[in-house]
Amino acid sequence: MYGVPLWWIACLVNSFRARTWLVLTVALAGLAQIVASFCLMVLTWDGAGYVFNTIQRGHAAVPNSRYSDYPLLAVVSLFSFLINDSRWLACIYGLVLAVLPLGSLLLSFHFLSGSQQKRLRIWPVLGILLSVLPGQAFVVAEAVPVVQVSWAVWAMAAADISISSVVWLGMLNLFLFFLHPSSALAYAVTGGLFVGKAWVAASQRRSNAWLGAIFLGLAAVRLWYGLATANSYERGEESFSQNYLAFRDALPSLRMLPVVYLLGLTILGGVTQRIPKRYLIWLAGLELAALLVYGVAWAADPKVWVSAFAFRRFVFVGALPLVVMGDWHWRYEQAVKIDNSSEPSDYRLGWIMAGSAAVFFIVFATQSFSWRQELSRFEADLNRCDKPVATIADLPWVAASPLHHWASTQLSCVVQGKKVKTVFALDPESVRENKILLFPGAWFRRRNRWFEFEQEWSAAGTK
């Protein structure tokens, strides 16, 4: 007589626990993004150029035909007519960009809600948070959100096809198409997942096969589009020598990935019962602790985490082993056909999800505070400088920091606010009259628009 109520209470408790882990995971990831936004992490590297150009011109400045950036930058442009502090505008941009990883995480949880899919939620957490963590500092690098948004697409591929999932697939893949050339790889992987799903699963076989063919076709179209529209910068980035040099530079960041893969293999061993469940949390805890120790040491030193700039080239490839593990896990769930909604190991996976989010929060927050210290030092040195243009000769410490980049000129404006006292140039020989050479063929020119320059460069000189 008491069996049904007790069973119902047990299911209710398990459901509450599952929701608690999900909420905690999203909350920690969201808190990390908020800390990063208020520390102005969005101004790393190209980010300073994006923010400066958008608010200076009064409209979204979209780089390299990456039109999916337009609605994100349009928010910054709109607020620039209401707010007179460029640092607050940069903070707003960081919060807007945070919608991409957090939204992808929430969509993944939503579509992986079936009884045989709930345990798959662990893979978007590892993919969106941990595999991208070594390059997360480069917030505006479009290769990073390509991976993060792709995990939501792959979660939909693992779930049953519905009208809502088809609508979301259409919107997300339109966004990916105009975001970055690596979206061609995302389409190819998605097409392969749908074809594999049609091969293995009997239900919705025809729909999965059609979606697989569509995505493989999209991959070919995006590859052609990328080759046809590539500028000299993008073609130069594709050379073997450039990628080899980037690999060497990215090594301090790439060293995190083997620990993430080991964590993934541990989870896979636990859910497939290759590893006893009583050992799952302990092994995962040790791996997360190792990742945390290395990650904090890496994130605390800007001279080390500057490798995140080069890691952006490998962020998609770095996520692929987790995609393979997730697909293997999906195949196992399909084969055993067990209702896992009240499986005791669910809370273990929930613990690992929250633990992964905690590692992400601590490492990314540490990195954000170290970046904020760099910005504070940069701003203080510019304020002390009595020249209209400072160079690397005036601030030699910049040469070994993440500020050593073409956008450091625009960064020097953004950190000072609307009224700019001193502009920074990397090289003294790149300053000519009222112009600063950013990179070959592109010059930064003094113009009083949103930003107001207090001193004439040509009159005062740089000596």
Structural notes for this entry:
The protein is mainly α. The chain has 2 domains: 17-373, no CATH class; 385-460, no CATH class. The chain is 66% helix and 5% strand. The chain is built from 20 helices and 7 strands. It has helices spanning 3-38, 46-57, 70-79, 86-97, 99-111, 122-130, 143-158, 163-177, 183-200, 205-229, 232-237, 240-254, 257-271, 277-300, 302-305, 308-311, 315-336, 345-384, 408-414, 457-460, and strands at 389-391, 419-420, 423-425, 431-432, 435-439, 442-445, 452-453. The strands form 3 sheets. It has a 3-stranded antiparallel sheet with strand order 4-5-6, with no helix packed on it. A two-stranded parallel sheet has the order 1-3. It has a two-stranded parallel sheet with strand order 2-7. Helix 9 (183-200) packs antiparallel against helix 10 (205-229). The longest helix is centred in the C-terminal third of the chain and has 40 residues, at 345-384. It is globular.
